[in-house]
Design brief:
The complex is a heterodimer of chains A (149) and B (747). Chain A has one domain (28-145): PCu(A)C copper chaperone (Immunoglobulin-like), CATH 2.60.40. Chain A contains 1 helix and 10 strands; from the N terminus they run H-E-E-E-E-E-E-E-E-E-E. Chain A has one helix at residues 8-18, and strands spanning 28-30, 35-42, 51-58, 64-70, 74-80, 93-95, 101-103, 109-115, 124-131, 137-145. In chain A, strands 1, 2, 3, 4, 5, 6, 7, 8, 9 and 10 form a 10-stranded mixed sheet that branches. Chain A is globular, with a radius of gyration of 15 Å. Chain A starts with 7 loop residues before the first helix and ends with a strand. The relative contact order of chain A is 0.28. With 747 residues, chain B is α+β, with helices and mostly antiparallel strands. Chain B folds into 2 domains: 7-456, no CATH class; 462-565 and 606-659 and 725-737, no CATH class. Helices cover 18% and strands 18% of the residues of chain B. Chain B has 13 helices and 29 strands. The chains are: A mainly beta (149), B alpha+beta (747).
Chain lengths: 149, 747
């Protein structure tokens, strides 16, 4: 299946958003193998079913794999964007020791599916990340930007 | 070549700093007449979208300072902070037209999450990574200096409010500290400024000193442009060197000739090197802005203990180093963190931090908060008492750390994350402004003085805490006389000014054998607090007490005393001490190991509850009606006989009696908040059973839907946990007995 080409304006906005600062509060979460940095998304329309979830994995001391997530605002998730495996449901995201992995709006990201409610600007929600090896991490999903027009 | 710092090298640096410490400002209790002042409430740790908050500067100032039905908790003064480093969102754009001002009107299609690039344009972003084609981020130094300061000055003038800018610094070698440099901010000319009637405002003052500090010393600021336009020498051309400290340009600490600053350390020894850089930051403040700045480690237990190879927490030796280096600047901590409505109160958590290697995941120090306060201050005899036991000027502050409402919108009264500044926690500071208005300098002076106290949930809203000497014969004082002084002070919202008496942050000189007469007067306000919940406190319901969450009642006041035995020597065995990690302190069942597990350097075993007052206990307080406004105050007093040794007294109080299951122990100490932290539902213990009919708004009469629920049962958690569990903490009064140890930190 051919992936849609993103409009230039969208790419420019995403570029700005992708450079989100290093927030100083508990936007950092730790498993025994890595740090998970600032999960974020955009506000959604009332009728939106999906949204893009971005975050960064760094300080990776040992390889692991993100294999699932739980959040009250969505019923499921899958990898999407460039590099995402075709036709694969669910999550299977390898994170390699010594490397950083940043999920971005215009690059590889997680698509939250079956949104249970509109995501409104400025709010935050529980986000439990499930790994293959390390214990689950209770993180926070932040709705940081207005939705794209 | 990697350079490691041994503990002795760091201790020597601290010793050198001690020798060069700035003179401590006088803090005398005399009858020569203190400048008139009042206790005023404020907050200095909070965030907008320029940082990782959720709202604009204008909305935050409005929510914090208004005293309306929507936000009734208006503070008297406010420092708008935000983390150091950089950000890509423009917090000076308001959310809607209701927040418009002539100088900063609402711009259709834009708001506080609009990026700088999409508002001011990338060409106006400065420093490394700025400009067109850059990364779209604005360094905090630029946003403070060029965008945020004009807004805050304008709002201060427009609303006639005491506002200024601060920072939640990302600390080299550690986590975070609340700080500010007020030099340049809010000049008196602002009082009579002619404000624009059209968009745009040119500030009369500036936050350039604060901006420079951010550039020079914040760990998140990796810019090396010297505060200039990208790729040019046009701009601030800052030089972060300090002629008063040779180490300020140390190559070992990473001095960069390009950036004229100490570059962030990395790799092995990051923590040690970072700590030394932070000491240079304090020396800079002390040298250039010694009376105009403050530096207060924030949520200092959250990131765990100190990590030699990372940027984590603070051990007691680091706090001693800070205070030794710059006692007029580093004079306390926020051991009562914000994030009070979070799934983990304070965002303190078991196994929160990854120290790597064999250390693995490390708890926040103490594992959780204790009644909303970190273990360093909550544990009687712990770190705070250890510092007071040296006679240091080391004060306790609370803050909101406001970011957002969690799953609720910013105008909702419920929260699963933070409270607004002033809504839940309030720090009350004696500010001696005489007949002048409140200004940044007098507010900073007040913080430095230590004449301050903090309360959650408006448990009390007035406090007078007084200690006076009494000698046989003409120098005798009765309890009634000292109580009268305290009553007069409390009812007027001010403090005492009497020979032979002292209050918080002061020291009382006493001859051996003196009696010390201690009086406390508080007001437990009538009516409701700012809680939106009207149903009975579930924590108290466990012990048969029916008390609405929005009408808390002070249960008791503890007077805690510790002995003063002088400053510890840097490098000595009892100068340092890491709090026990993980289950060596907080066990799986939520109980703690106790002070026996704490190393000598981090505790003061002489500290203990000396007296407890309550409404109907063995030492009851007495109600007295104010002659000023007829409200009811509670007065109490006692005598300490025949003092021989220097000591200090401090207060705490709660709405919870002793032995409330999962809240307080048999002695009234707060238990770990693990039993009300929703992050681990297996540990939740206090059911919330009230079924309500009104579940939104400001008069919610039943357990709200957002509480953690297990097997169909709601449990006390999130904001309800905070509203149920209220405390106040005062700063200490020192008693310096002649021929005993000097209270060297207070003059």
């Amino acid at each position: 299946m051919t992936r849609p080409v993103l409009p230039r304006r969208y790419l420019l906005i995403a570029l700005g958003a992708a450079g989100l600062a290093r927030p100083a509060r508990a936007c950092e979460f730790f498993s025994s193998r890595m740090r998970i940095w600032h999960p974020w998304t955009r506000a959604t329309r009332v009728d939106a079913d999906t949204t893009r979830l971005c975050m960064r994995f760094d300080e990776v001391q040992a390889s692991d794999r993100l294999i699932g997530l739980q959040t009250p605002v969505a019923g499921g998730a899958r990898l999407a964007g460039p590099g995402a495996p075709e036709g694969v449901q669910g999550l299977s995201l390898p994170i390699h020791a010594g490397q950083e992995l940043t999920l971005t709006e215009d690059g590889l990201h997680i698509e939250l599916l079956d949104l249970q409610q509109p995501l409104q600007l400025g709010r935050s929600f529980p986000l439990r990340l499930i790994f293959e090896f390390a214990e689950p991490v209770n993180a926070t999903l932040n709705v940081d930007y207005a939705g794209l027009r | 070549m990697t350079h490691f710092f041994s503990k002795s090298q760091i201790a020597l640096a601290a010793l050198a700093a001690l020798g060069s410490a700035a003179v401590i400002a006088p803090n005398l209790a005399t009858a020569a007449g203190k400048t008139a002042g009042k206790y005023v409430s404020g907050d200095f740790h909070n965030h907008t979208t320029c940082s990782d908050g959720a709202i604009s500067m204008q909305k935050l100032v409005k929510k914090v300072t208004d005293k309306t039905a929507d936000s009734p908790w208006g503070l008297d003064w406010f420092v708008q902070a935000g983390h150091g480093g950089n950000g890509n969102r423009n917090c000076t754009l308001v959310e809607d037209a209701s927040l418009s001002t002539p100088a900063y009107p609402y711009v259709a299609g834009q708001g506080p999450t609009t990026t700088w690039a999409n508002s001011i344009g990338a060409a106006n972003l400065k420093g490394n990574g700025g400009g067109v084609g850059g990364n779209g981020n604005m360094w905090r130094w630029q946003s403070l200096q060029e965008y945020q300061y004009p807004v805050i000055e304008y709002l201060a003038a427009y609303k006639n409010l005491p506002l200024f800018l601060g920072l939640e610094s990302v600390v080299a070698g550690h986590e975070h500290s609340s700080m500010s440099v007020v030099t340049g901010q809010m000049p008196s000319a602002v009082d009579n400024a002619t404000l624009p009637t059209a968009p745009g405002y040119t500030a009369l003052g500036n936050a350039s000193a604060l901006a420079q500090w951010s550039y020079c010393f914040d760990r998140g600021d990796t810019d090396q442009s010297r505060g200039n336009v990208t790729g040019s020498t046009t701009g601030n051309n800052w030089d972060c060197s300090n002629p008063a400290s040779a180490d300020s340009t140390s190559s070992t600490l990473g001095w960069s000739g390009t950036g004229k600053k100490l570059v962030q350390p990395g790799g092995a020894g990051t923590g040690d090197k970072g700590h030394l850089k932070t000491l240079e930051a304090l020396k800079w403040m002390a040298n250039f802005h010694g009376q105009a700045s403050y530096y207060v480690p924030a949520h200092l237990e959250r990131a765990g203990p100190f990590n030699v190879d990372g940027n984590n927490g603070f051990n007691i030796e680091h706090l001693r180093n800070f205070n030794n280096t710059a006692p007029n600047v580093a004079f306390g901590f926020e051991s009562q963190p914000g994030h009070g409505a979070s799934s983990n109160r304070g965002e303190y958590q078991v196994k929160r931090n990854n120290f790597g290697g064999t250390a693995g995941l490390v708890d926040s120090v103490g594992g959780t908060t204790y009644g909303g306060t970190g273990v360093y201050a909550a544990q009687v005899g712990g770190v705070w008492d250890a510092l007071l036991g040296e006679g240091r000027n080391w004060w306790f502050f609370a803050s909101s750390d406001w970011h957002n409402r969690g799953s609720f919108g910013p105008d909702d009264r419920r929260s699963t994350q933070d409270f607004y500044p002033g809504e839940y926690q309030r720090t009350h500071v004696m500010v001696r402004n005489g007949s002048d208005k409140l200004r940044p300098q007098t507010i900073v002076d007040g913080l430095r003085s230590g004449n301050a106290w903090s309360a959650s949930g408006q448990l009390i809203d007035r406090l007078a805490f007084v200690a006076c000497t009494s000698y046989a014969g003409p120098g005798a004082r009765t309890n009634a006389a000292v109580e009268a002084l305290a009553v007069a002070a409390a009812t007027k919202g001010t403090d005492i000014d009497a020979v032979g008496c002292a209050t918080m942050g002061e020291k009382l000189a006493a001859r051996p054998g003196a009696e010390i007469v201690v009086a406390v007067v508080v007001r437990d306000p009538d009516g409701t607090n700012f809680s939106p919940y009207t149903f009975p406190n579930p924590s108290l319901a466990q012990v048969g007490i029916n008390q609405p969450l929005n009408k808390p009642v002070l249960d008791h006041v503890d007077v805690i005393r510790g002995m003063v035995t002088g400053y510890k020597t840097p490098g000595s065995a009892d100068y340092s001490g890491e709090w026990p990690r993980n289950t060596a302190w907080l066990k799986a069942d939520g109980t703690t190991a106790g002070l026996a597990a704490v190393p000598a350097g981090a505790k003061n075993t002489s500290a203990a509850v000396l007296k407890t007052f309550s409404g109907d206990g063995g030492t009851p307080w007495t109600a007295v009606q104010s002659g000023v406004d007829n409200t009811v105050f509670l007065k109490m007093s006692f005598r300490i006989p025949a003092v021989q040794a220097s000591q200090y007294l401090r207060l705490r109080g709660s709405n919870l009696p002793a032995a409330v299951p999962y809240e307080t122990d048999a002695s009234g100490n707060p238990l770990a908040d693990i039993y009300t932290n929703a992050n681990d539902t297996s540990m939740l213990r206090i059911p919330c059973r009230t079924v309500g009919t009104v579940l939104t708004g400001d008069a919610i009469n039943g357990c709200p839907a957002h509480l953690a629920t297990v097997a169909g049962q709601k449990y006390v958690s999130y904001d309800v946990a905070a509203w149920a569990d209220l405390w106040f903490y005062s700063n200490p009064i020192y008693v310096e007995v002649a021929n005993s140890y000097a209270v060297a930190g207070v003059r």
